[in-house]
Structures are given as C-alpha cells and as structure tokens.
Amino acid sequence: HRYYTRRRHHKQSEREKYHQMRTTYKNVPLVAKFRLLRASTAYRGGGLGFENARPKPRTVSTPKTAIECKKKSGFASEILNKTREKVQNTVNGREENGFQNRKALKPGTVTKMRKVYEDTLKPHYAETGVLPPYNDAKYQFARTPDEIEGMRKAGLLAAEVLDYAESLCKPGVTTEEIDEKVHLMIIDAGAYPSPLNYGEFPKSVCTSLNECICHGIPTPDETLLDGDIINVDVTVYLNGYHGDTSRTIRVGKVSEQVETLCRVTEDALEAAIKIVKPGVPLRRIGATIHEIADKHKFGVVDKFVGHGVGKEFHSGPTIRHHRNNDPGTIEAGMTFTIEPMLTIGGTRDIMWKDGWTSVTADGKWTAQCEHTLLVTDTGCEIMTLSPAKKALGDHLIRGAR
Known about the structure:
Blueprint: H1 2-24, H2 30-39, H3 41-44, H4 75-88, E1 90-91, E2 94-95, H5 145-168, H6 175-188, E3 192-193, E4 206-209, E5 212-214, E6 229-238, E7 241-250, H7 256-274, H8 283-295, E8 299-300, E9 306-308, E10 315-319, E11 335-338, E12 341-343, E13 349-351, E14 358-360, E15 366-368, E16 371-375, E17 380-382, H9 387-392
Antiparallel strand pairs: 1-2, 3-6, 4-6, 5-14, 6-7, 8-12, 9-10, 11-16, 12-15, 13-14, 16-17
Helix pairs in contact: 2-4, 5-6, 7-8
C-alpha cells in the first residue's frame, strides 16, 4: 500500500510539472521544445525504482522565452541557451540577420505629418483622416476629353515624381529624406500627396524596403545600403484626379537573385498590360501574372490588389494578381491600376502594429511595380509612363539597371 501510494503521488507531481513545462515552452520553436522536453526529468519520469520516485529539488523560473533548468551542461542546456538567444534576437518572428545578410526591418520613429499649401485642392479625407469605404461594385471611368486629360496630367506628374524619387535612392539616404523631398516636389506642382492622412497614414509616399511588401512608412531610422531594393509608391491628387504608380528601385549593385526578382516582376506587369482591352475577363490579369511567376518559382502576394483609380483613390474593380475566379470584364474607359507583388520566398505576411506596414513572414525580399491604365477601344493607355526613361530610350516599365 505504501509503494502504490508513493507511486501515485509521484506520477501526479510529474504530470503537473510536465504540463507546466508545456505551457512555459509555448513560444519556443517546435524542434527545440521537443528536444528540451525529452531531455528533462519531468518528461522522462522518475523510473520504476524507489531511488528515483522522489525527484531531486531544482530551481525553476519562468521567463517569457523558456524555463530555466538547474542543469548547467549537456545537450538540453545548450539547446536552451541557443533558443533563448534566438528568441531574444528575433524581429517579426524570425532571426535578426536573415536574407542577404540584412538585419530584419524594425519600426522606426515616425515624425509629424508634413503640411501642404492652403490653396491646394485636397481630397475629402485630407482633413479628417477618415478612411473612405471601399466599394468594389463602383468602377471609375474617364470618357470625356476633360476626364481623360485630367487623368493624363495626374499620371504624368506621378511619373515625374517617381523618376525624381529614384534619383534619390542612394546608399546612406534615409527614407525620411526621400519623403521630405518628394513631398516638396508634389506640393510645389500644385498637387496633394494622396497617401498623406489617408486613413491617418502619416507620410506622403510609401517606401517599402527589402522584405516590406507594401505601405512602408518613411522614417529617419531607415537608411539605404548598397544592395538593397526599395519600392517607392507615389500617388498625387492633381485637379481632382489621382495618378498612382510605383517601381522597385535597385540601390547600388544587387545580387543576381534579387535582380531576377525585380526583372520578373516588371515582366509580369508588362505581360498583364498587354492583354488589357475591352471584353477581356478581369481574372485573366491575375492568371497572366501568376503564370510568369510560376515559371521562375516566385510567390505571388494575394493579400493586396490593384484597384480602380480616378476621382477616388481606391474603388472597384478589384484587380487580383493571382489566379482567381472573379467575375467581371474590362470595359472601355475604365481606369485602374495593376501592381503585382512577387516574393522570393513565401507569401504569408506580418502586419505591423502601425496598421500599414506589411512584411514577409520569412524575411525573404519582395518586389512590386505599378501603373495606372486607361482602357481604350483597342487596348489601354499607360497614364504613368516615365518621361525620363522614354527620353533615354529605356524600357517604359522597368527600373534602372
């Protein structure tokens, strides 16, 4: 009776310790958790003999990352220490020094919103910061000469601003400096930077560096390095019309893999633009982009989409860049963007607490490019063609190489 009573109490005590360790190890990677549990006396139990029935006393603490065992050496202790270091040096759930030997992006200090001239024509959200509702069923059209001319002027200014932003992207420059100079160029041209206070977005341009998929917020803490890539997304509101464009810019000399990513993303946008004409199903745009990405084994981000643009910043139709079964066909006079986002690794993202910045969960880099299109009777007109690249005889979509 004494034997079985001691065994019963011992087993109950070991079960409690086992469940305590499972709860404490909840933030530790699965492989390390399994090895640590296997190596611990609480998992193995006390054995069948009376000599191990009463566990030896040990010191236990419960920090956020893992339990501190009294054991000072051995395989389990080594894994424990490495796991603790890894968890402490992670950002967004991954190691700090990751892809391309770059540190993981971290939220920086966001400075105050910049001001615009009092007489500048502003969109309705400029003062309130209220995010307008997105209506997928509401398409935007430019059919009259005045509407078409308004879209052309807004698109041309957006393209000129993007060319200027590309010239600023050098090693040592901060994204805050890019935002400051782009802001001045836009307001001096009599326009309003569309992202500013859109849903309380704090800056005038989006700067998405390396693993940032989109909507990166410029900060003075984010400095460009040789070999980086940065997507600069420019939208201007000029005379009542929005012009929206972006491209991924190479900072200095990038690696061959990263260059391929940028080139394929640009090729995908070009191929998608070529099929745009009245009567074509909207879903063919996504199928065309996805097919090109698959050939090069790149991922296609499905969380963010192209959209209608014109008098409103965002509206229908929703332009998905992956294979889909969405209804709807392209109509003459439609104005919308195509803006594929391709990744070297997985497409799952992590959204920062700012509610805007989206980064890849695995830390692999991503590229994006975008144009605003006007559908004509026979095809489409790219409203945001780069005048600088056209003058140089360079490709009209690709970034500098």
